[in-house]
Automatic annotation (TrEMBL):
Gene3D superfamilies: Single-stranded right-handed beta-helix, Pectin lyase-like (2.160.20.10). This is Right-handed parallel beta-helix repeat-containing protein. It holds the Pfam family Beta_helix. Residues 104-275 form the Right handed beta helix domain. InterPro entries: Beta_helix, PbH1, Pectin_lyas_fold, Pectin_lyase_fold/virulence. It comes from the Bacteria. The lineage of its organism: Bacteria, Bacillati, Actinomycetota, Actinomycetes, Pseudonocardiales.
């Protein structure tokens, strides 16, 4: 099936260059079912539509030229499935990004970016990595098998981000809110990671100032997270961080975060962990961050975890109507 074009839409067949279709200026680029070779760089306002995750699959090929900054925690000269750099109003839906050496999706200083039914599968460093960006929507996406975060917000000071109805598995961190604020994580199923959701305020040399404030985590299933992350091996899961395993939700150095109606169950460490519980709320002040204060945890179920269900710094937290199992 050859590539076809109308005034408003370009249809790209497997084997034809996606980037050429994007550069044509058509408002919609439709990717036919099948395996397409080579990632691509988004432009303002474009809508990229596949036949559905698992049906339209993008795998590495020719590396596209982009001036996007180097990817955090990645080696030099990695390739990405989709790059969105200084882009406004783009959207991607209905496709899989598989086997890239950097990230499945790498957005940097993007605005009003929407990802729907996008699967990031087996990308080496990050699944969906959104940095210094705002107006973000990640809906019905899946991220699996990345060294660090499956879905990550990094240094998004006013993210205005919605991460809804997603699934993450086999990553160091299923969802990673890293020095980012105003994020809403809802109805996420995060299982089989080292940590289901990690929210962290920490200072990194050479990186922007950060913080994690004014966020929501609601109606999520954080279960069976038992992979081991961290350590000295640079190829290991979560190699840049301390040992971590068996964590459902960790909130470290966060303020004004509401945690409502989540189920944190069956998380058991498969290796060493600095956390020690499935639900952890604590300070990052020793690492240049801050205390966790003014947070609300309500109507959560935290049971059946080991070695402990919860460790919550009692200063500055409001706990109401939670079911937290006895210590084991």
């Amino acid at each position: 099936m050859p590539t076809t074009e109308t005034a408003t839409e370009v249809l790209v067949a497997p084997g034809d260059p996606i980037q050429s279709a994007l550069d044509s200026g058509a408002p919609t680029v439709r990717l036919a079912e099948g395996v397409h070779t080579g990632g691509f760089v988004l432009r303002d306002g474009v809508r990229v539509v596949g036949a559905g995750a698992g049906k339209t699959v993008i795998v590495p090929g020719e590396v596209q030229t982009s001036d996007v900054p180097p990817l955090h925690d990645a080696p030099e000269k990695v390739d990405h499935g989709i790059v969105a750099h200084r882009v406004t109003g783009a959207s991607v839906e209905g496709l899989t990004l598989r086997g890239f050496s950097g990230a499945g999706v790498y957005a940097h200083t993007a605005t009003d970016l929407r990802l729907t039914d996008v699967e990031a599968d087996g990308n080496r460093v990050w699944g969906i990595y959104l940095r210094e960006s705002s107006g973000l929507a990640v809906h019905r996406c899946r991220a699996a098998g990345s060294q660090y975060g499956g879905i990550a917000l990094a240094f998004c000071r006013a993210a205005e981000a919605d991460i809804d109805d997603c699934e993450t598995t086999a990553n160091a961190f299923g969802v990673f809110v890293d020095n980012s604020s105003r994020a809403r994580v809802r109805r996420v199923r995060s299982h089989g990671n080292a940590a289901g959701i990690l929210m962290l305020h920490q200072t990194y040399p050479g990186e922007p100032e950060g913080g994690v404030t004014d966020c929501l985590v609601a109606d999520c299933d954080l279960t069976g997270n038992s992979l081991a992350a961290g350590g000295e091996d640079p190829e290991a899961l979560g190699a840049a961080g301390p040992p971590m395993s068996g964590v459902g939700l960790a909130m470290i150095g966060v303020q004004r975060v509401a945690v409502v109606g989540n189920r944190i169950t069956g998380n058991h460490p498969g290796g060493p962990s600095v956390m020690g519980a499935a639900l952890v709320v604590g300070s990052s002040a020793d690492w240049g961050g801050s205390a966790s204060t003014d947070n609300t945890l309500e109507w959560n179920t935290v049971t059946g975890n080991s070695p402990a269900n919860a460790w919550v710094d009692p200063d500055g937290q409001r706990l109401v109507n939670n079911e937290i199992g006895e210590a084991t």
